[in-house]
Amino acid sequence: MQLYMIRHGQSYINLKEWENGNTDAGLTGKGKRQAAALAAWMPQNIPQVDIIYASTMQRARETAAPLAQAYNIPIQFDDRLREIGNNRFDHAPWPSDDLPEYGDYWGSEKPFTSITPSREGGESLMHFRVRLGQFIEEIVAKHKGEIVVAICHGGVIELTFDHVFNIGPWRRCEAWTMNTGITRFEYVEIPEREVWRLYYHSRAEHLVELEKAAAGDSQLVT
Question: Of 6, 56, 68, 135, which residue is most buried, by most CB within 10 angstroms?
């Protein structure tokens, strides 16, 4: 199984000036252009995709839509691909119009403590890892020999690294992913060998022209 994990395009909550807390916000104009560039690039470089999964959060939905249209296949939405803190400890999603606020500490600092302490029933980093691990092991069983794309969030990709590398709860390295960056894993079944291969992380050739255009616009303004 080939697994391509892709972070959503730039969302309003990614902006430094964002002051509305943990909100199920969609993509900015830049994020929509990133999603369009991704949808134009992928079929030319990855001609076949068997299934597209996506987080149910708005920024992932809006990133997945043009990609699904480009491949002419439906999107399989899955709550387990939501960003950390947006589900309860039993893995059920919080309502999108009533998301809890994060605590004043990073999940890796207190991996067994709820990431949203102001709301009873919130998930910890380890609850997050369990729901993501369940998703990964399920698709491994369901999609042998297939090409799977998952449109998700930076935290989801980070914890996928933890799962496939079998990292313990006390994380020491952040696997940062840029908006619409592509990470490619392969699940291989070779006796007495590792079962996962990592080919690349946060690949983003599709954004080169956008960045050039943005740089040119900046020079014109100045």
Answer: 6
> Phi and psi of 49, rounded to 5°?
-135, 130
Q: Are 140 and 146 in contact (CB under 8 A)?
A: no
Q: Is 7 helix (H, G, I), strand (E, B) or coil?
A: strand
What are the per-10-residue average pLDDT scores of the chain (222 residues)?
98 93 96 98 97 98 98 98 98 96 96 97 98 98 97 98 95 94 95 93 95 68 49
Q: What pTM value is reported for the model?
A: 0.94
Cα(7)–Cα(85) distance, integer angstroms: 17
Q: Give Cα 171 to chain centroid, integer Å.
A: 18
* Residues whose CB falls within 8 Å of the CB of residue 184, separated by 6 or more in sequence, listed in order: 2, 3, 4, 5, 198, 199, 200, 203
pLDDT in tens, 61-114: 999 999 999 999 999 999 999 999 999 999 999 999 999 999 999 999 999 999
Cα separation, 170 vs 125, in Å, equals 10
| 169 phi/psi in degrees, rounded to 5 | -70, -25
Partners of 114 in the β-ladder: 124
Phi, psi (rounded to 5 degrees) for 184:
-115, 120
Question: In whole angstroms, what is the distance from residue 215 CA to residue 113 CA?
Answer: 42
Q: How far apart are CA 182 and CA 48, in angstroms?
A: 15
**Architecture field, domain 2-221:** 3-Layer(aba) Sandwich (3.40)
Show me where the domains of the chain are located: 2-221
